[in-house]
C-alpha cells in the first residue's frame, strides 16, 4: 500500500510502501548470473516487520565477494537537505548497505553518453538475523562527496548539479556465504518535493536518445549488456521458470509479446525473452504489407524481449512477406532496435540481408542423414550467408512425421537418446553456429513421458559445458576441421597373406572368414578416419578445440564412441601455449609436442566429445578453475541422475527383448553388460556422496558407455541383413526394437498369404499402362532451371526403360546455390492395402549426376511413414537396391512418392510392392521368398517424356 501525505504549503509528500500485496513483488535484483542465482523471490506473510507481509529473497552464490544489488523505484524527488529514505531490513549477512541513486538531469556522463548519476550511501546493516531500520539521508556532505567521486571518475572539471533528484533506493552487499536471505519492509521516502515537469521530460528524452540497446550486434556476434552472449533457447510450454533456469537456458520463447507479467517474471528469474511480434492481417487472415499497415510502437514494458522471432521453418517463398514484416517491426521498435531472427527453408542468402539472425534447423535423427552430413549442412549455411549470425534448433524429440505415424499405429513414441542431443549440439558448435535452441513440443519439466527426464538432464549438462566456453563460442571463428585418432586395440592386423589358401572345406571356410574379417576391419578403419574430426576455433581468448566422433548411423542408435589416447595434430599450433582439457568437474593440463605439421595433443580418455583450450593466459585458466568449481557439484548430480534414468530404460527394453525370445544378445550378453553398467552407476553415486564430483561424473559417463555398447549390439543384430536401417520402420531407434521383432514374427506367419505385385507398372516399360493406372507428376522448375521426368532407354537395371528425374540449370555459368524442392515429383497410383498387412517395397536407384542445391537430394517415401521414412540420395552412385518394409495401421491406399529436390539426375527401376497377410495363428517362421521379375528384352528407343502424358498434380509454373 502506498500512502502520500503532505502539506499544501510545502508541497512535500511522504512515500510509504508496505509490501502487503502478495500477488506481486517490486524489488529488482541485479546479479552476475555466472556468480550467483536467485533461488526465490516472494512476499512473505509469516515474518513481516509490520503489516501483512514483507518482501523475501534468497540468493545462492558460488563465489565469495559476488556483488548483489537490490533496487526499488521511488517517486522522483529533488535532493534537498535531510531528504531521508528508510527501510526495515533483516538478513543473515552483515555489512549490507542502503543507498540512493540520483540523476543529474543537466549533465551527460562522458563514459556512458547517458545522464550522469551519483550514488549516496547510507547506513550499514549490523544486527545479523534481526530487523534493523536503515537510513540514507541526503546531507550536503554526502552529496558533495558523491559529486567529487563523479568528477574524479569522469575527468569532468565542472559538474552541473542543478535540479538533481533521486529515483531509486538501493541495497548493496557482497556475498560471503552460500545462501543469502533478504527481508525488506516499510520503505519510506520523505519529504518529497517533485522536480519540475519540464526537467523530467527533458531527462526522459535524453535517456531515450542516448540509451544503448540491451542487446547489440558486432558483425556476427551478440553482446548482451556489454558481454558476449551465446543464446541457449527453448520454447515455453508452461514450465516452472526455476526449472528452465536450472536447465541452463538464457532465452525463452514467450507465447505472447505483450504478456508483460510473464516477461517480468522471466526477468526476475534471470531469463530473457524472445517473442513473435504481431502480424498485420485483414479480416480473411491475409497479410497486410508495410504499405498498407504499420505496427503500434512497442511498449517499454517489452524491454525483457531481446530478440524478435518471426517463426520456424519459414519457406523461402514467403520472402516478400518476411521482408515487409521486418520493415514494420523496425519502425515500431525504434527505442530498443532489437535483432530479428527467422528460421527458414530456402533463400537464406536473400533473407540474411534483412534479418540479423538467420536460422537453419535440419532434423536428421531417425533418418538416413548422418550426423557428419548434418554438420556439413550447417557449415554450408554459414557459407551461403557469410558474416551473418547463424543459429539452429536442436532436435530433442521425434519429428512430427514420426510422431504421426507412430500415433496412427498405436505405438509408443520414439525416444531420442541423450547422446544424440549431445552429438547434435557439438556438431552445431563445430559448424560455427552462434546460438542453439532446444526444440520441444512438450514441457521440459514433465518427466512422466519415457525419455523426458533424460532429455532434461542432457540439456542441463550440455548448457553447463557451453557456459564454460561461452566467450569462445560467442566471439571465435571456426578456422578448420582436422581428423584425430584413437590408440588401436591390441588385436592382430589381418593381412591377406595371413589367410592362406587351403584345400579342405573347413580350411576354406576359415580362410573366407579371415578375409571377410579383414575387409570389415579395413572398412571400419576407413570409416573411423572420416568420423573423428575436431573443430579448431580461434578467438581473442585463445584456441578452442572441439573433438567429436560423428559415428556412422549414430542418428539411429549411438555406438560406444570412446577410447584411449586420442591424438590430434593442430596445424601451426603455438607450442609455447599450454593445453588444457576442460570439463564441468575438472580442468587438466595435457601433454603436447611439436611434430611435423603442427602441435600434437593427446587426450588420455576420450568419450564422444571433448573440450580443449590452448592459451598462454594463466589468469584465464585460474578463472576457468573457479568456474568449474562452481559447476562441479551440479554437473556430477546431473550426470549421475542421467545414467540412472537411462539404465532403468535399457533394463526394461532388454527384458522386453528377452521375453520376445528373439535377441541372443539380450539373452546372453545383456545381463552382464547391464550388471557392469549398474556397478559403475553405484560407484558414481558413492563418489557423489563423498563429494568427489569428478569421479562421480566420469563413472556415470562410463556407465552410459556400457549401455551404448548394449544398445548398438542389439541394433546391429536387428539390422545386420539390411542395406539401411530405414528398411524397417522399427530399426530407426533403439526404443522401437521390440516392435521390429514383433513385425518380423508376423512376416514369418505370412508365408502362405503373399499377394502378387501391386505395382504392375513399376517396371517403367509402358507409358500407356502408367497413364491408365493413374501415375501423376508435378514439375516445379525454378527460374534458370529445367526439370523433366521421362522413361529413359540409355541406362536401366533391366528391360528397356528406367524412370529418370532430371533437373539442370539452363545456363551452366548461373547455377543456383540453394534450391527449394521438389523440382520434379512423380507419384504412384493408389494401391489398396488392408489393416494389419505388411508391405514390402523393393526397387533399384542410380544417381547418375550428384544432386546439389538441396540437402534432401532425391527421395522416395511411402504414405504410411511419410517424410519420417524417406530414403535420401545425393552422391553419384551405381545401381542400389531399395528395400522398405511397412506395417499397414489401417485399410487405406498406399502411395509412393519419388522426388528430385535439387539439381542432378536419378534413375528408378523395377519398383515392386508385395503385400503379406499374417495368419491369425502362430506358425513356425519361414523365410518368404520373392521370385525375381523376368528379364525384359533389351533394346533402346527414344525417351518418353512423362510430363506430356501423365495427369498433373497441379498447374505448372510459368516458364521464362
Low-confidence regions: 1-10, 490-499, 922-960
Measured on Cα atoms, how large is the radius of gyration? 33 Å
| N→C terminal distance | 72 Å
| Total DSSP E strands | 46
Strands of the largest sheet, in order across it?
Answer: 30-29-33-27-26-25-28-32-31
What is the count of helical runs?
Answer: 18
Proportion of strand residues: 25-35%
How helical, in percent, are the residues?
25-40%
* Main sheet makeup: 9 strands, antiparallel
Average residue-wise pLDDT: 87
Shape: globular
How would you classify the helix and strand content by structural class?
Answer: alpha+beta
Structural write-up:
Helices cover 28% and strands 31% of the residues. With 960 residues, it is of the alpha+beta class. β21 (340-345), α6 (348-352) and β22 form a beta-alpha-beta unit. The termini are far apart. The strands form eight sheets. A nine-stranded antiparallel sheet has the order 30-29-33-27-26-25-28-32-31. Strands 16-17-18-19-21-22-23-24 form an eight-stranded parallel beta barrel. α7 (371-384) packs parallel to α9 and α13 (618-660) runs antiparallel to α14 (664-689). The radius of gyration is 33 Å and the shape is globular.
Amino acid at each position: 500500500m502506498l500512502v502520500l501525505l503532505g502539506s499544501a504549503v510545502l508541497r512535500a509528500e511522504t512515500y510509504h510502501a508496505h509490501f502487503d500485496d502478495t500477488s506481486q513483488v517490486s524489488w529488482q535484483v541485479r546479479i552476475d548470473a555466472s556468480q550467483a542465482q536467485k533461488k526465490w523471490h516472494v512476499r512473505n506473510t509469516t515474518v513481516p516487520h509490520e503489516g501483512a507481509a514483507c518482501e523475501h529473497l534468497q540468493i545462492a552464490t558460488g563465489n565469495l565477494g559476488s556483488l548483489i544489488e537490490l533496487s526499488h523505484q521511488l517517486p522522483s524527488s529533488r535532493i534537498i537537505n535531510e531528504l531521508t529514505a528508510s527501510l526495515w531490513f533483516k538478513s543473515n549477512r552483515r555489512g549490507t548497505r542502503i543507498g540512493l541513486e540520483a540523476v543529474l538531469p543537466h549533465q551527460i556522463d562522458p563514459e556512458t553518453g547517458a545522464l550522469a548519476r551519483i550514488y549516496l550511501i547510507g547506513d550499514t546493516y549490523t544486527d545479523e538475523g534481526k530487523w534493523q531500520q536503515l537510513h540514507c539521508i541526503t546531507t550536503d556532505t554526502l552529496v558533495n562527496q558523491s559529486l567529487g567521486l563523479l568528477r574524479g571518475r569522469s575527468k569532468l572539471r565542472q559538474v552541473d548539479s542543478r535540479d538533481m533528484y533521486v529515483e531509486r533506493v538501493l541495497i548493496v552487499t557482497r556475498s560471503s556465504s552460500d545462501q543469502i536471505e533478504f527481508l525488506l519492509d516499510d520503505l519510506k521516502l520523505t519529504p518529497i518535493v517533485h522536480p519540475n515537469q519540464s526537467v523530467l521530460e527533458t531527462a526522459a528524452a535524453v535517456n531515450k536518445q542516448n540509451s544503448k540497446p540491451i542487446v547489440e550486434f558486432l558483425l556476427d556476434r551478440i553482446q548482451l549488456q556489454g558481454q558476449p552472449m551465446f543464446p541457449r533457447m527453448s520454447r515455453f510450454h508452461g514450465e516452472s521458470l526455476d526449472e528452465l533456469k536450472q536447465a541452463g537456458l538464457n532465452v525463452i520463447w514467450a507465447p505472447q509479446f505483450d504478456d508483460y507479467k510473464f516477461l517480468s517474471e522471466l526477468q526476475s528469474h534471470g531469463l530473457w525473452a524472445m517473442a513473435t511480434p504481431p502480424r498485420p492481417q485483414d479480416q480473411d487472415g491475409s497479410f497486410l504489407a508495410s504499405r498498407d499497415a504499420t505496427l503500434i510502437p512497442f511498449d517499454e514494458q517489452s524491454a525483457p524481449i531481446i530478440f524478435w522471432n518471426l517463426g520456424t521453418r519459414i519457406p523461402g517463398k514467403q520472402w516478400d512477406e518476411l521482408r515487409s514484416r521486418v520493415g514494420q517491426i523496425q519502425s515500431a521498435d525504434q527505442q530498443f532496435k532489437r535483432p530479428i531472427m527467422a528460421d527458414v527453408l530456402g533463400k537464406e542468402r536473400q533473407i540474411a540481408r534483412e534479418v540479423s539472425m538467420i536460422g537453419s534447423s535440419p532434423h536428421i535423427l531417425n533418418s538416413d542423414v548422418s550426423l557428419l552430413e548434418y554438420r556439413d549442412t550447417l557449415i554450408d549455411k554459414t557459407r551461403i550467408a557469410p558474416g551473418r549470425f547463424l543459429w539452429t534448433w536442436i532436435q530433442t524429440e521425434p519429428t512430427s512425421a514420426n510422431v504421426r505415424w507412430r500415433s496412427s499405429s498405436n505405438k509408443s513414441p520414439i525416444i531420442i537418446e541423450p547422446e544424440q542431443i549431445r552429438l547434435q549440439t557439438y556438431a552445431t558448435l563445430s559448424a560455427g553456429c552462434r546460438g542453439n535452441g532446444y526444440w520441444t513440443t512438450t514441457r521440459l519439466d514433465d518427466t512422466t513421458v519415457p525419455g523426458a527426464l533424460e532429455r532434461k538432464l542432457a540439456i542441463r549438462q550440455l548448457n553447463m559445458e557451453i557456459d564454460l566456453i561461452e566467450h569462445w563460442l560467442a566471439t571465435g571463428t571456426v578456422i578448420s576441421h582436422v581428423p584425430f585418432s584413437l590408440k588401436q586395440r591390441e588385436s592382430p592386423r589381418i593381412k591377406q597373406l595371413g589367410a592362406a589358401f587351403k584345400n579342405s572345406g573347413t580350411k576354406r571356410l576359415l580362410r573366407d572368414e579371415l578375409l571377410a574379417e579383414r575387409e570389415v576391419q579395413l572398412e571400419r578403419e576407413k570409416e573411423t578416419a572420416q568420423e573423428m574430426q575436431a573443430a579448431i576455433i580461434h578467438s581473442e581468448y585463445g584456441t578452442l578445440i572441439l573433438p567429436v566422433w560423428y559415428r556412422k548411423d549414430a542418428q539411429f542408435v549411438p555406438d560406444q564412441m570412446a577410447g584411449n589416447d586420442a591424438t590430434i595434430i593442430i596445424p601451426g599450433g603455438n607450442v609455447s601455449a599450454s593445453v588444457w582439457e576442460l570439463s564441468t568437474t575438472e580442468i587438466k593440463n595435457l601433454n603436447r609436442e611439436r611434430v611435423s605439421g603442427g602441435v600434437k595433443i593427446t587426450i588420455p580418455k576420450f568419450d564422444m566429445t571433448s573440450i580443449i583450450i590452448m592459451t598462454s593466459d594463466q589468469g584465464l585458466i585460474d578463472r576457468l578453475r573457479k568456474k568449474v568449481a562452481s559447476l562441479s557439484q551440479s554437473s556430477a548430480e546431473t550426470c549421475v541422475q542421467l545414467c540412472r534414468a537411462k539404465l532403468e530404460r535399457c533394463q526394461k527394453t532388454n527384458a522386453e527383448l528377452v521375453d520376445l525370445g528373439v535377441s541372443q544378445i539380450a539373452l546372453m550378453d545383456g545381463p552382464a553388460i547391464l550388471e557392469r553398467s549398474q556397478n559403475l552407476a553405484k560407484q558414481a553415486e558413492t563418489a557423489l556422496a563423498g563429494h568427489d564430483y569428478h569421479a562421480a561424473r566420469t563413472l556415470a559417463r562410463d556407465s552410459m558407455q556400457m549401455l551404448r555398447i548394449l544398445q548398438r549390439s542389439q541394433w546391429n543384430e536387428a539390422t545386420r541383413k539390411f542395406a539401411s536401417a530405414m528398411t524397417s520402420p522399427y530399426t530407426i531407434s533403439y526404443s522401437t526394437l521390440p516392435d521390429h521383432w514383433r513385425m518380423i514374427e508376423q512376416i514369418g506367419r505370412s508365408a502362405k498369404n503373399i499377394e502378387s505385385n501391386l505395382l504392375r507398372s513399376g517396371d517403367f516399360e509402358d507409358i500407356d499402362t502408367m497413364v491408365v493406372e493413374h501415375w501423376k507428376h508435378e514439375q516445379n522448375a525454378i527460374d534458370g532451371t529445367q526439370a523433366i521426368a521421362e522413361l529413359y532407354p540409355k541406362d536401366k537395371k533391366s528391360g528397356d526403360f528406367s524412370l529418370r528425374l532430371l533437373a539442370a540449370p539452363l545456363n551452366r555459368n548461373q547455377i543456383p546455390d540453394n534450391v527449394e524442392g521438389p523440382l520434379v515429383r512423380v507419384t504412384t497410383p493408389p494401391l489398396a492395402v488392408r489393416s494389419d498387412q505388411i508391405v514390402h517395397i523393393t526397387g533399384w536407384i542410380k544417381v547418375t549426376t550428384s544432386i546439389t542445391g538441396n540437402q534432401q537430394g532425391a527421395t522416395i517415401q511411402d504414405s504410411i511413414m511419410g517424410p519420417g521414412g524417406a530414403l535420401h540420395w545425393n552422391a553419384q552412385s551405381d545401381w542400389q537396391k531399395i528395400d522398405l518394409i511397412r506395417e499397414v495401421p489401417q485399410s487405406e491406399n498406399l502411395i509412393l512418392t519419388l522426388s528430385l529436390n535439387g539439381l542432378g539426375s536419378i534413375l528408378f527401376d523395377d519398383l515392386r510392392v508385395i503385400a503379406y497377410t499374417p495368419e491369425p495363428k502362430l506358425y513356425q517362421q519361414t523365410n518368404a521368398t520373392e521370385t525375381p521379375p523376368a528379364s525384359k528384352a533389351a533394346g533402346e528407343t527414344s525417351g518418353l517424356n512423362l510430363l506430356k502424358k501423365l495427369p498433373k498434380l497441379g498447374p505448372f509454373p510459368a516458364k521464362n
